[in-house]
TrEMBL record:
Residues 270-290 are annotated as: Disordered. Residues 47-530 form the Major facilitator superfamily (MFS) profile domain. CDD domains: MFS_SLC46_TetA_like. It is found in: Membrane. It comes from the Eukaryota. GO terms for cellular component: membrane. The chain crosses the membrane at residues 120-138, 221-243, 306-326, 346-366, 378-397, 409-434, 501-519. InterPro entries: MFS, MFS_dom, MFS_trans_sf, Tet-R_TetA/multi-R_MdtG-like. This is Major facilitator superfamily (MFS) profile domain-containing protein.
């Protein structure tokens, strides 16, 4: 409103000064809204529920084989009666899914940026269904391998569905949407093994129902494989009918068909009104791509933000799946060898509790925690929770050796389960960070595919590395070589516990800290003639505005520029006697 400073005018007149009236209109700008009071946009529940239903397909098809695949490997005769080879072939079967997924998921995601999300999802569901039917009908090891590779290779839906969720939400409800994702995975991971364990060999298990079926007698594992395969077909039909396309590429598709129809009408002279039809040539359909919204080549996708987010996601998956691989091994290993020596009947409920608690915690608290603290802080705290989770392994074993399976031991086991839920909280946060890191909307699928490719590699090698370190720590104290057979049981268990789980915990946390925080830790390594490399802005480039400095320092090893991960690998190799003697060097 107009405002006249009468008092200032009178003062200026007394001083003999000329005063000019100026009307100044003040426009009062309302304060920015409080983030805590911003109303959350309602989720499109019908479309979102379809996505959750579709996400059950992957854990069902990937987890259903775990209970019976050891027996299946024995029955097909690939081991030649050597029981020690069973674990080797079982490990191959379990890793093939993630290996082939890593090889193809990026290409599926980039394809979804070009032709839309829905066609790729339909193709992936069809591939999952066919691969599971083939797995149940396979009678040779190579048939199983081909089916498993088909399962992972045609499963491009993981990254594509994350893109769909990011496209159907906004900044107010994306955290709520991602909080429901672990429920689908936990549900499928729980139902899948139950189906595989209870429906294998149905002729002998349920003779009244399937005793006369010659087909199921010849293919005893077809029934547990056919159920997730049939579920995937149902999901395919639901997707075809009800799921809406979320990618902006649909406008270009409609424009193409509109132009084709107009050209056809001109050729046949059936109608002269197609050219002027406003329905077929709306600005929305024929508009050119907005600046910066074109599909970027791969080299332009490898930005600082994308690499940081994808690296964090890969390390998180590596830590998480390694912990999940070690946990049942720890629970079943005898107390004298560093575990708890629990029976399978007790291990199952303990692992099931995690799935239930994880789902409840994600739905109830993740959205509010994320809205209050933000994606980066939630992810950082989740990574930090891996430190006590790994550290509890030797502590639990210590009390099991001194007190037996007391209430304190079980209390620590439950504490470990609750703490590990924090790791799962990090998934929702990193999904959001990856979506925000995409250079533009048209590259969202490719960015999700790139991160999922790195995660698939980690999930393929994580259990192998964790199990190998477990065996290595056992051998280091003479478990199989006899070198430590005379050691006291308590000391031997302590060496296994603090050696095996301590090494895993320290290495994994070191990796996670390096990528999550980017702090310049001072740590001492024994490395082979390797010199710190002084970085300069001209070599590395100016950091992006508002981007966290998460890139780890670089070093040189025999003239090759490497990072601290390679240095840690050198340290482990030198400790195991795999490299020559190293010089001591402090690196900051």
């Amino acid at each position: 409103m107009p405002f006249h400073d009468d008092e200032r005018r009178r003062e200026s007149e007394k001083a003999g000064m000329l005063h000019v009236d100026v009307d100044i209109e003040y426009e009062i700008t309302p304060p920015p809204p409080n983030p805590k009071k911003i109303q959350r946009t309602p989720l499109p529940w019908f479309q979102f529920s379809i996505l959750l239903f579709l996400q059950l397909a992957e854990p069902l098809t990937s987890q259903v084989i775990y209970p019976f695949v050891p027996q299946l490997v024995r029955e097909i005769g690939i081991t030649g009666g050597d029981e020690s080879k069973t674990g080797y072939y079982v490990g191959i079967m379990q890793s093939l899914f993630f290996v082939t997924e890593a090889m193809t998921v990026l290409h599926w995601s980039r394809l979804s940026d070009r032709i839309g999300r829905k066609p790729v999802i339909l193709c992936g569901l069809f591939g999952l269904s066919i691969s599971m039917y083939c797995f149940g009908l396979s009678k040779t090891f190579w048939g199983l391998v081909l089916s498993r590779c088909l399962n992972g290779g045609l499963n491009g839906n993981v990254g594509v569905m994350k893109s769909v969720i990011a496209e159907m939400t906004d900044e107010t409800n994306i955290s709520q949407a991602y909080s429901f994702m672990p429920i689908a995975w936990s549900t499928g991971s729980t139902i899948g093994p139950i189906l595989g364990g209870s429906l294998a060999h149905p002729v002998t298990r349920f003779p009244k129902l399937f005793g006369n079926s010659k087909f199921l007698a010849d293919y005893p594992y077809f029934l547990p494989c056919s159920i997730p395969a049939t579920f995937t077909i149902v999901a395919w039909v639901i997707t075809l009918i009800f799921l809406k396309e979320t990618s902006p590429v649909k406008f270009q598709q409609r424009s193409f068909f509109s132009r084709w129809r107009r050209l056809s009408s001109k050729a046949t002279n059936e109608s002269s009104s197609f050219d002027a039809s406003p329905v077929l040539d709306t600005p929305e359909e024929s508009r050119p791509a907005a600046p910066g919204e074109e599909i970027l080549p791969m080299r332009k996708l490898l930005t600082r933000r994308v690499l940081i987010a994808s690296g964090n996601y890969a390390i998180l998956a590596f830590v998480d799946i390694s912990f999940r691989a070690i946990q049942p091994l720890f629970l079943s290993t005898p107390v004298a060898l560093g575990g708890l020596g629990l029976a399978p009947s007790m291990i199952g409920p303990i692992l099931s509790v995690f799935g239930v608690l994880n789902g409840l915690m994600q739905v109830s608290f993740f959205a509010s925690i994320h809205d209050r603290w933000g994606s980066k802080r939630v992810f950082t705290c989740g990574i930090l929770s891996t430190l006590p989770a790994f550290a509890l392994f030797p502590l639990i074993n210590h009390y099991a050796r001194t007190e037996g399976l007391s209430m304190r031991v079980y209390f620590l086991v439950w504490c470990q389960i609750v703490i590990s839920i924090g790791v799962s909280m990090s998934y929702g946060a990193i999904f959001i960070l990856i979506s925000e890191a995409a250079p533009n909307h048209r590259s969202l699928g490719a960015v999700n595919g790139l991160s999922q490719m790195a995660v698939s590699v980690m999930r393929a090698v994580g259990p192998i590395i964790a199990s190998s370190l477990f065996s290595l720590s056992y051998d280091c104290v003479g478990g199989s070589g006899g070198g430590g057979a005379s050691a006291a049981p308590g000391r031997r268990a302590a060496e296994v516990g603090f050696g095996e789980f301590g090494v895993i915990g320290v290495v994994f946390i070191e990796f996670a800290f390096t990528f999550a925080f980017g702090f310049r830790f001072r740590f001492d390594l024994k490395c082979r003639s390797h010199i710190p490399h002084e970085r300069s802005d001209t070599e590395v480039g100016e950091p992006e505005k508002n981007a966290s400095s998460l890139i780890p320092p670089f070093y040189e090893y025999e003239g090759v520029r490497v990072g601290p991960m390679f240095s840690i690998v050198l340290q482990l190799a030198e400790t195991l006697g795999m490299t020559s003697s190293a010089t001591y060097l402090s690196i900051s």
